[in-house]
Task: structure prediction
Amino acid sequence: MVVMHAITVNRYGGPETLELTETEDPKLGPDSVLVRVKAAGVNPVDWKIVAGYLDSIMYVHFPLVPGWDVAGVVEAVGLDVPEFSVGDEVFGYVRKDEVQHGTYAELVDAPVRTLAHKPASLTWQQAAGVPLAGLTAWRSLARVRVAAGETVLVHAAAGGVGSFAVQIAVAQGARVIGTASERNHDFLRSLGAEPVTYGDGLVDRVRQLAPEGVDAAVDYVGGDAVAVSQELLKDRSRVASIVDPEVTRRGGHHVWVRPNSADLAELGRLCDAGKLRVHVEHALPLTEAAEAFRLSQSGRTRGKIVLEVGTR
Result:
């Protein structure tokens, strides 16, 4: 029996449930490729799945290998895969219809709809940090119809999704105002945003920069971000949130991102053009997946957390 190393979970719980184990290599479906994993991105949804928070909306099976983000090399292709060849370097948001076989492993079977060719300018760690966060930023900005010359308010702008949203909006010709703690203000300036501190008085601080309000807003933090945004928006419907489902009741948009090869390839082009920088705050070995969960749960990470996966 061929085995690989992977992080597995056998019950719902916290970081303590993660174990490094040996498991069978994944099967290769007809429209999938087998990816030898170089790095796996860590996202808040990973620990939320392990905690059981998504049980009501997705089928979750144990033993479970967490992780949806990947960067690696194609090791084998399925029967109907003209898009990729053995040896191709790829990255992807490998979310399947059911949750069990994730990317915290040496090998992952990835449907072609979840992958694109890896940007040549990125390291493995950087590439693994792009897919879910980058696609989420891309889709949320599209939902609020950001256009050149407009002013966009980005909540939690220094985080994984927010830092991508800032750069994508800037690349689209928008002016960006981003909320973050003061320690992250220089970081936001380096991405092209005008920083403001979140918390009480945010509306007034934004109006000091944009007296007539903002054209669009994207929320990556929750709390009162949607309500604050709508006080500042010229059109109250142009707000999207990935955190607060009540945004739809208020006339805005709730975003749950899906895998999309074309959009992922576009993000790759922005990276190679120097318009999208990937900040990896923590790169940990696969054996420290539990610590990666704890760092993500803290909510204080600037940019991305990535697991480095060994090869055999």
In short: The CA atoms of residues 248 and 254 lie 6 Å apart. The chain has a mean pLDDT of 96.
